Amino acid sequence: MKTSELYETDFYAWTIEQAQLLEAGKLQELDIVNLVEEIVSLGKQQRQELRNRLGVLIGHLLKWQYQEHRRSNSWKATLREQRRRIQGHLKENPSLKSYLPEAVTEAYEDGIYLATQETYLPETTFPPENPYSIDQILDPNFFPDHL
After folding, report:
1. What is the pLDDT of residues 57-105, one digit of tens each?
2. Rounded CA gap, 121 and 140, in Å?
3. Domain boundaries, the chain
4. Residue 147: is its pLDDT beyond 60?
5. Do 105 and 137 form a contact (C-beta atoms < 8 A)?
6. Confidence at residue 2, expressed as pLDDT on a 0 to 100 scale
7. DSSP the chain
8. Which one, of 74, 54, 55, 76, lies nearest residue 65 by Cα?
9. Global confidence as pTM
């Protein structure tokens, strides 16, 4: 079976085969087109992981700020856990730091969505623009007060 056909029928087997070909130095036998696609996809996944975690973090910051009476240890734990995981993700992928401003902007919309779904507050409750700096978002000691 051609390596490009294996890509379509058994992705896992294809990855094993590509790794073996690379290790053996058989570069001419590699499925270059699909390898490029997968490498690009891996990079996109790293960016998406950062955006997703930021969205959850921002959503919980909004919940913390706009529902003082419902603050709980589980919310605080979620804030701490997302910050810890974001820091770990950035440590493993330091080049993503330059993407942080864009990622925060994109994640803010997801954060509002999460906050409206979990608080039942109208979307208009929350600022149309992200009120938190990147430093505040990532600061393990930052817990916003109600405005």
Report:
1. 999 999 999 999 999 999 999 999 999 999 999 999 999 999 999 999 9
2. 26
3. 45-138
4. no
5. no
6. 79
7. --HHHHHHH-HHHHHHHHHHHHHHT-GGGS-HHHHHHHHHHHHHHHHHHHHHHHHHHHHHHHHHHH-GGG--HHHHHHHHHHHHHHHHHHHH-GGGGGGHHHHHHHHHHHHHHHHHHHH---GGGS-SS--S-HHHHH-TT--PPP-
8. 76
9. 0.87
